[in-house]
Specification:
CDP-OH_PTrfase_TM_dom; disordered C terminus; Four Helix Bundle (Hemerythrin (Met), subunit A); transmembrane helix; transferase; mainly alpha
Amino acid sequence: MSEHPVPVPAPGPAVSDRVLTIPNLLSAVRLLLVPVFLVLVLAGEDVAALVVIIISSASDYLDGIIARRFDQMTRLGRLLDPAADRLFILAAVIGLAVREVVPWWLVIVLVGRDVMLVLLGVVLAQHRYGPLPVHHLGKLATFALFYALPILVLGQAFPEVGAFTDPLGWALALWGAFLYWWAGALYLRQTLDLVRGSEPWRPVASDRVDDSRRSTDG
């Protein structure tokens, strides 16, 4: 047996309870932009809505970099960041459904899955379990949906590119919705296993996060 010690990977950066950090402020700005985006979509101001999406995406990228580089990862940030993503998706799909660009069944599919996750969170809390780890399928679904709906808005803003953007947007939207529910089914199964006592799990969420992203999505 080798006498050399086996290297142990360094733990991820600690997650603090701080509130007033630059990443959290950027996430708060993103949340404030959600109703602005919805109003613009409903009013048919698609170019302005796209500008809001671009600003939101840039701030999302920036707050992740700042959080990692300056050790400003916080529990609040882990809530605000994915909340902003989901609310932008919800605002986009509702606005486009009102304008009859997308069908209402897509709204029901996406909202229904999020409602299910909220209920699963309540069940886990009642059994003194922390949040489930985010599955990579959930992250892929959020990524696909976050860009699918703005691409559909782009086709509305510039009809001349609609022949390209509409199929792309719909492909991402349908694939994202499928992955959204696939991840939801995995969360449901894991929750049932935990509640039935067939799978061990820590009662609280980890205080460490992956360096690849400050927040958890999906």
